[in-house]
Specification:
With about 350 residues, this protein is an alpha+beta fold. The chain is about 20% helix and about 30% strand. It has three domains: about 1-85; about 120-275, Methylamine Dehydrogenase, Chain H (7 Propeller), CATH 2.130.10.10; about 280-340, no CATH class. The strands form six sheets. A six-stranded mixed beta sheet has the order 7-8-9-10-15-14, with no helix packed on it. A hairpin with a 3-residue loop joins strand 8 and strand 9. Keywords: Repeat.
Length: about 350
C-alpha cells in the first residue's frame, strides 16, 4: 500500500511537471516568455523524471517522451508511454523479460533464420493461440508455421510452391481440419503442415475466375469435421467456402498431382458469392463475438459491410456504410463494443 501511495504521488508530480513544461513552451513559442531559473529544459525534465521513477524508466524513453511533447504541444502523450515506448534492436536490452514498478513487458525476440528471401515480403500473419502457433505467408510463396513449443520459442516449417506465377495475397488457419489456408490470384491453397507423408502436403483448389485478395476463417464450433472460409476478390465479391474432411477423401481420387499437392477443380465445390463492393475487397474478417463478418473496400459507396454470413447466400439487404475514398482497415474491440475503421 505504501508503494502504491508513493507511485501515485510520483505520478501526480510527473503530470504536473509535464503540464508546467507545456505551458512554458506554449508561451515561449508565442514570443511572450522570458527565461528564468524555473524553466524546464530537457536536463531538468530528465533529472526530475529519474528522481520520481528511478530505474522503472529508460533513458531513451525519457528522451522520446520529451521529444514527442516538443513536436506537438497540443497533443499530450499518455503518462504510461514513458514506460513502454517502442525499442529498436540496438537498444542494448536483454532478451529476457524485464519487470518495472509499473508494467510487466517482454522484449521482442528476433527469428534468426530468414523466413523470406530478398525482394520478398510478408503478406499475411495470423496467430493461433490454442496451438501456440504463428502462421506467415510471403508474397512469393513461402508459408511458414512458427511453433512456440519447440526450440524454446520458434521452430519453422518451410514450404515453397511453384504451382503458378501468382503471388500469395493472404493466409489463415483452419482450426478444425488443422490446415493452413492461403490464397493467390487464382488459387486456394490448403497446406497440411503436419503431414508425415512426404508425397502429400495438401491441396490446391483452382481455377478461381477473379483475383483473390484476402481470406479469413469463420470460427464456429458446431462441427469439428469442417471449416468455413471467407474470401474477397478484385471485383468486389465475397466468397463463402466450406471444406470438410470428406472433401479430401472424395475429391482427391480425381485430382491431378502437381509437386506434392493435389489439384482440385473449383467447379466441384459449392462456393456461394455475392458482390458487396464496387472495388477491390481489401480485407475480410469474422468476429465470433458478433457472429458477423466484416469486409471493406476503397469503394466510397459500399465501403464497409458488417453482417451474417447467411447474407452471402440469401441476398437479403446487408448492413453497410459509406466513407469517402473507402476503408482500408478495420477491427473490433469487444471491451469497448466498437468497430474502428481506417481509410
Amino acid at each position: 500500500a505504501l508503494e502504491l501511495m508513493d507511485f501515485k504521488n510520483a505520478l501526480e508530480q510527473f503530470q504536473n511537471l509535464v503540464e508546467k513544461m507545456i505551458i512554458q513552451k506554449t508561451i515561449f513559442f508565442s514570443g511572450l516568455y522570458t527565461k528564468d531559473d524555473d524553466e524546464i529544459d530537457y536536463e531538468k525534465f530528465y533529472k526530475t523524471t529519474r528522481t520520481l521513477f528511478g530505474s522503472a524508466v529508460q533513458d531513451q524513453n525519457i528522451q522520446a517522451f520529451f521529444r514527442k511533447i516538443m513536436n506537438n504541444l497540443d497533443e499530450r502523450p499518455e503518462w504510461l508511454e514513458i514506460f513502454v515506448f517502442f525499442r529498436g534492436e540496438s537498444d542494448g536490452m536483454s532478451s529476457q523479460s524485464k519487470e518495472s514498478m509499473v508494467l510487466l513487458f517482454f522484449e521482442k525476440q528476433q527469428v534468426t533464420h530468414s523466413v523470406v528471401k530478398r525482394k520478398d515480403v510478408i503478406k499475411g500473419m495470423v496467430k493461433v493461440p490454442l496451438l501456440h502457433l504463428t502462421v506467415t505467408a510471403s508474397q512469393k510463396g513461402v508459408l511458414t508455421v512458427f511453433s512456440k513449443q519447440r526450440k524454446s520459442f520458434f521452430s519453422y516449417f518451410f514450404f515453397f510452391f511453384f504451382l503458378d506465377t501468382a503471388w500469395i495475397n493472404g493466409c489463415d488457419f483452419l482450426p478444425n481440419l488443422i490446415y493452413v489456408v492461403a490464397v493467390t490470384e487464382s488459387t486456394i491453397i490448403l497446406w497440411d503442415y503436419n503431414s508425415k507423408d512426404s508425397t502429400s502436403d495438401g491441396f490446391v483448389i483452382k481455377p478461381m475466375k477473379n483475383c483473390l485478395l484476402c481470406v479469413c476463417t469463420v470460427t464456429m464450433a458446431d462441427d469439428l469435421a469442417k471449416d468455413t472460409i471467407l474470401m474477397g476478390d478484385d471485383k468486389g465479391y465475397v466468397y463463402l467456402l466450406t471444406i470438410t474432411s470428406d472433401d479430401f477423401i472424395m475429391k482427391q481420387s480425381k485430382a491431378e498431382k502437381v509437386s506434392q499437392f493435389k489439384v482440385l477443380d473449383s467447379e466441384s465445390f459449392d462456393i456461394p458469392k455475392r458482390k458487396l463492393h464496387d472495388d477491390w475487397v481489401g480485407r475480410i474478417k469474422y468476429f465470433p463475438a458478433l457472429k458477423r463478418f466484416g469486409s471493406c473496400s476503397t469503394d466510397s459507396i459500399n465501403s464497409f459491410v458488417l453482417d451474417d454470413i447467411k447474407r452471402l447466400e440469401d441476398h437479403l439487404p446487408v448492413k453497410e456504410f459509406s466513407v469517402p475514398k473507402g476503408v482500408n482497415a478495420f477491427t473490433y474491440c469487444g471491451k469497448a463494443k466498437v468497430i474502428v475503421t481506417g481509410g
